[in-house]
Each structure stands twice: as C-alpha cells, then as structure tokens.
Amino acid sequence: MQDDDPPVDKTKPLALDSAEAGLPGPGNLMGSSDETLESWDDFPRARRPLLARDLSSRRRRIWLPALLFFATCLSTWWAGASYWEPFQYVGFGGPGDSWRGIVLQRHHEGFVYMACVVGILLAHEMGHYVATLIYRIPASLPYFIPFPLAPIGTMGAVIGMEGFRANRRQIFDIGLAGPIAGLIIAAPILWLGVARLDLSEPGRGNYRYDCPLVARWMIARQHPDHAEVTGLQVSQMNPYFVAGWVGLLITGLNMLPVSQLDGGHVTYTLFGKKAHWIARLFVAGAVFYMLFSRTLMWGLMLLLVLVIGTDHPPTANDRVPLGWPRAVLGFVSLSIPILCFPPRGLWPVP
Prior knowledge:
Elements: H1 18-21, H2 26-30, H3 52-56, H4 63-81, H5 99-105, H6 107-135, E1 143-146, E2 154-158, H7 168-195, E3 207-210, H8 213-222, E4 231-233, H9 239-254, H10 262-271, H11 274-293, H12 299-308, H13 324-333, H14 336-340, E5 346-348
Antiparallel strand pairs: 1-2, 3-4, 3-5
C-alpha cells in the first residue's frame, strides 16, 4: 500500500517550523543577529526544541526490554517458588527438596510473588515513562533487571531518558512520578501480606529481613501481640509480604538524595546546587554506617553512585518556579527513605 502522506521535515520542532509554531528561529533564540543559525542542527542540543527527528528517527528498542521483562518474570517466580532462598538450589538440588519439588509444589507462591513484584516495578517505571511522554522528553522503555540468584529475584528496573531537555519543574514531576506510582501498588500489597503473616512460631531460614518503619507500623496494627517485631525470617513470610517489602526497598532506595536517583532529582529541584552538599554528606554518612554496623550489602549500590557521581547535573532551566504545591510535596517526599528503606536489608542468621 503506497503512502500518500507528504514527507516530514525532521529538522522542524515537533514537525512544525518556527513560523508555524509561533516560535522565533534558531538565530533569534541565540540572541545574535550577526551569528544567525540556519538550522536547528547548529543550535546547542540542550537548549533546542525537541525535533520531530528526535522521536521518529530512533526506533524504540522493544526486543531487549521485552526479553529482560520476561527474564525478570522467570527470576522472580523462581525466587518466590524457592521461598526466597534460590541460591540453595544451584545445581538443581537443595536441602530436603529438589527443584522438581519446587516446581510442582510451590509454583503458586512463585506466581503470586512474581505478579506482585513485577506489578510494583512496572507501576514505578511507567510513572516515570508516562511523565516523559507528557513533557515530550525522549526516553526508553523500562529495562527490568533479573537476578536469579538473589533472594528477591531482581535488581529493579530503569529507564533511560535525555534529562538535560527537562527543566526544573519537569524533572521534579518525572522523578517523583515513579515512587508515587510504585507506592500506590506496593502499600496495599504489603498490607495484605502483613495480614497473612504467621508469627505464632519462631522463624526459620538462613536470612532475616529487616522491616522498615511502614512495615513495623502495619505489623503493630494488625498483630498487636507482636508489635515489637523488627525483622522476619523466611518461614514467617508470604509472597505478598515479601513483594511489598521489595516495593518499599526499591522506593526507599530510589528516593535517597544522591546523584540522579529519584531522590536526587527532588532534592536538586528543591535546593539547587546546595543539593550537591546534601548528597556528599549523605554518602559519607552511608559509608560510616556500613563500616560501623558491618552492613556491607549496600556496598555495590554505593560504588555505582560513586562511579556515576554524587552531584546532580543542571536542568535545561533551573529558574523555572516549582510552585508551593510541588514544594510541599517535595519536602514531604524526603521522608520516604526514612519510612520505606530497611537500613539493614537482610542479614545471615547465626
């Protein structure tokens, strides 16, 4: 079938030239009539409008995100089916249970856990993604990260975006949309999981999971006789609780006020360049905490932050006002790591 549509000029801002869009030309935007630029290609990339070419010329990579999504579904199913101790079954065997027994007897728990965790991750990343679509910031589809040998079966998910195109208000909305969307899904799942906890017997398992403040409040509300519980072992948990725990972990981790994490976006838009000192002090405090508490499981995350850099880069326009509703929401969101992040994570049971 022949396409009769006229060819699109991909050098025009969003398929419009300057006159059609009611915008000045690139030379006028530069503010110099002597050095007028004839093409948007000559305009500084971080300051030019989003061109139609920027969206149409780059095919969204679908196969890799789809394969990673499928792999994450498998790895989280395996984590749930193995009662969050998949490393015991490396080599297709485990203490008192074979991998065949897991597949036949525990597949239901695996599917419940997989659906809940993947749903939380998907909600988080789609919060970011939808915000980039609203503001027309080029972004990739979510990349899920499977980790079959980890107790929780995944290392989360990420999207790539050209954040330098977003101004202060836009980067605030994009950064906070993910955590809010993820918490909307994670909170009721965790509540359901807390209701199904079995705290009548002492816990069994190789690891103990630290409960963040939100989980402790839910336990105190639904199990007042066990209000002192601060951590749980595998035998006491269920797929809903672990999925909610993972949702809080990922949200709290992403909202830490460093680098280009979601929390880094929020603190930079609230405090500007002062956020760089907040990030540096936080990293220094995290190092001291890990050394003195011997909680080294966060070492890889800290190393990645140091490689990327603690400082948040400037936005396309740092002078755009946030407005008081966003400012209030931003300051309230700074409590998310305190409420949702389990400082000790999980640790071996002696």
